[in-house]
Amino acid sequence: MLNAYQENFVRYLDKERHLTLNTLSSYRRDIEHYITYLETRKITTLEKTNKTIVLTYLLTLQKQGRAASTISRHLASLRSFYGYLNRSGMIKTDPTLGLEAPKVEKKLPKVLSTGEVEKLLEQPDGEDIKGMRDKAMLELLYATGIRVSELILLDIDDINISMGFLKCQSGRGRVIPLGSLAMSACADYIQQARNVMIKDDKERALFVNCNGRRLTRQGFWKIIKQYKLKANITGELTPHTLRHSFATHLLENGADLRSIQEMLGHSDISSTQVYSQLLKNKIKEVYSKAHPRA
């Protein structure tokens, strides 16, 4: 019975709110974890849950050593879950109303310098089909700031080389302009490599693996780790780093937050404002190093 609540909720998030696969998976894991907790307490219906049970669950996560950010995420998932069930008439009361999440210290994202980005993007040689694909993917990520989960969901029809734009249809759909280098790399890949890599003419994925099927997130993770080593980049480098670097470098060069928010697909400007803090920190650092009386 409890699992039926969860499946209805995930279906709603997918069909009505059009969330990305990663976000859906995160919600599913959080709710599954909560349901498992309820089952260990012999609770078989959500009508029997209340604020005390939810608070006890959150305290259990805390005792397990979970970070404040993780506990806050679990509470946010439960708020969405109970809110949906309450609005749908499946439960009469929402036990998460009025509950406060633990305060989370916001960590600033790690970004690459423009020099490090250049070194990374230079690594795929572009001479063989795999190199052409990898160069196109890295150039596209840095040119548009899309998430890796969005990159691997792109279809061949989502990119318009001649007009210079990309349609990102997963998550918060948007149209993003492409720079000349990204357009050139993508054109080379599409014209010279993709048709060689695909095994089935019906395949619509823009980026495919060596078996001709849609590239996975895990596959991309292996690729970027390989190029990090080749570029001798010592700092943190995750698939999300190019997205953070894209936003930060745009801001450094005068782009406004609203435009960056639109390109990143953030629903709330507060998610984008973290890059302003990065810029402020950089300005302080430059001042401290350069000013004779700092």
How would you spell out the order of helices and strands? HHHHHHHEEEHHHHHH
Rg over CA atoms: 22 Å
What kind of sheet is the major sheet?
Answer: 3 strands, antiparallel
Mean pLDDT: 87
The oligomerization state is single chain
The outline comes out as globular
How far apart the termini lie comes to 64 Å
Low-confidence stretches: none
User: How many β strands by DSSP?
Assistant: 3
- Classify the beta-strand content into a percent band: under 5%
Number of helices: 13
Order of strands in the sheet with the most strands? Answer: 1-2-3
Structural class: mainly alpha
Characterization of this structure:
By secondary structure, this protein is mainly alpha-helical. It contains 13 helices and 3 strands, in the order H-H-H-H-H-H-H-E-E-E-H-H-H-H-H-H. The protein has a 3-stranded antiparallel beta sheet with strand order 1-2-3, with no helix packed on it. A hairpin with a 5-residue loop joins strand 2 and strand 3 (174-177). Helix 2 (21-40) packs across helix 4 (68-87) and helix 5 (114-122) runs antiparallel to helix 6 (129-144).
Jot down its keywords.
single chain, 294 residues, 13 helices, 3 strands, globular
List the helices and strands and how they pair.
Layout: H1 2-15, H2 21-40, H3 51-63, H4 68-87, H5 114-122, H6 129-144, H7 148-153, E1 159-160, E2 165-168, E3 174-177, H8 180-197, H9 217-230, H10 241-252, H11 257-264, H12 269-272, H13 274-290
Antiparallel strand pairs: 1-2, 2-3
Helix pairs in contact: 1-2, 2-4, 5-6, 6-8, 6-10, 10-13
